[in-house]
Design brief:
Layout lengths: L13 H5 L4 H6 L5 H7 L22 H4 L12 H4 L28 E2 L5 E5 L29 H8 L6 E5 L8 H12 L6 E6 L1 H4 L6 H8 L4 E7 L8 H11 L4 E7 L8 H13 L3 E6 L14 H14 L7 E4 L8 E2 L3
Parallel strand pairs: 2-3, 3-4, 4-5, 5-6, 6-7, 7-8
Antiparallel strand pairs: 1-2, 8-9
Length: 344
């Protein structure tokens, strides 16, 4: 049974308090109140409330992620990724609730088929952390909720198309499925002979490292398919010894570990920050994969970086790092056959 812990019992070090909890307990005790978050960060009462905003996409952040924020810094780059701000209430021209027009590719409940040879399963419909720039913050998850009783049509679609070689588990957060349910889903995917690759897109190893249980790591390592796990880490401060310790089992396994970042104004829009991110990822056993231009989703306009600046940053990475540590700068454009590279 998960333990519920009151915030005032966390004392002064939330990471120390929660590092021995199981992942379900960490998730169930995520911070959802701005004033509680301010207290944990030693900010003045009302300091975060003065700049925050209430909307349908609520504050949600696990304690291990809070522990990596700089106490007393209202502009901490990790804090700004999760804090609902008043600027989210603006709706500039060109921004929409479905910027990638995914609903038109939603071929079955829980299944998105945009690109040749691969499909995406929304394996879970929520996340342990609500990132303010999320391009699926308005996605119709309730109509795409998958369970063992409801994922049959999606798997049937995959089994009937021999061109589908890869299944991507996303969401939401696919690792919100417990080990038993996730293993059951993997079993059924692996029974489809033409599926050769399984990719898992997840923020969990960053937000709640405890989710990488030995049972999960062993199941992924033993898959019939080639498995890749794509982490979502945007800033070097997100990587600490706690995260690296839990990644070790996967680093030494056949699972390929990659990372994709989103380029965010005021968060990681500097060459020095992005260089440190790539270097720290590599130290943790993870290779940089993509650097995404921010999608034009309603609520995220304040994170936008111009294409010209993005190209300059990509050039700086290329001129500083070995090629294998330079993520590919891309934008996803609806209707295109693949992600669009933003070369310099």
């Amino acid at each position: 049974m998960n333990k519920e812990v009151k915030p005032d019992a966390l004392e002064h070090d939330p990471l120390q308090a929660c590092q021995d909890w199981d992942w379900q307990t960490v998730v169930s005790n995520s911070v959802s109140d701005v004033d509680v978050l301010a207290s944990l960060l030693n900010l003045e009462p009302g300091e975060l409330s003065a700049i925050s905003s209430r909307n349908d996409f609520a504050l949600r952040v696990p304690l291990p992620f809070v522990a990596r924020m700089q106490a007393g810094d209202i502009n901490d780059p990790l804090l700004l990724q999760v804090l609902p701000q008043q600027s989210e209430n603006t709706s500039p021209i060109g921004f929409s609730s479905d910027p990638l027009q995914e609903t038109q590719y939603n071929v079955r409940p829980g299944l998105v088929h945009k690109y040749a040879g691969r499909v995406l399963l929304t394996a879970a419909v929520s996340c342990p952390i609500n990132c303010r720039y999320c391009f699926r913050r308005h996605f119709p998850y309730e109509a795409n909720r998958l369970t063992p009783k409801s994922w049959t049509p999606a798997l049937q679609y995959i089994s009937e198309d021999p061109n589908i070689k890869e299944v991507i588990l996303s969401g939401g957060e696919p690792l919100l499925l417990n080990d038993r349910l996730l293993s059951q889903l993997l079993d059924e995917i692996e029974c489809i002979e033409h599926v050769q690759m399984i990719r898992i897109h997840t923020r969990f190893p960053v937000a709640v490292p405890q989710r990488l249980t030995q049972t999960l790591c062993s199941r992924l390592a033993g898959s019939r398919c080639k498995v890749a796990m794509v982490l979502h880490c945007n800033h070097p401060n997100e990587i600490d010894s706690h995260m690296k310790r839990h990644l070790r089992a996967l680093v030494s396994s056949p699972v390929t570990l990659l990372n994709q970042s989103v380029l965010l104004k005021g968060i990681n829009d500097s060459g020095e920050t992005l260089v440190r991110l790539s270097e720290k990822l590599y130290e943790a056993g993870v290779l940089p994969y993509y650097l995404h231009a921010t999608d034009p989703v309603i609520g995220a306009a304040h994170f936008q970086v111009t294409d010209a600046q993005a190209r300059c940053l990509s050039e700086a990475l290329t001129n500083t790092l070995p090629g294998y540590l330079v993520p590919t700068l891309v934008r996803e454009i609806s209707g295109q056959a693949a992600k669009t590279r933003l070369g310099f």
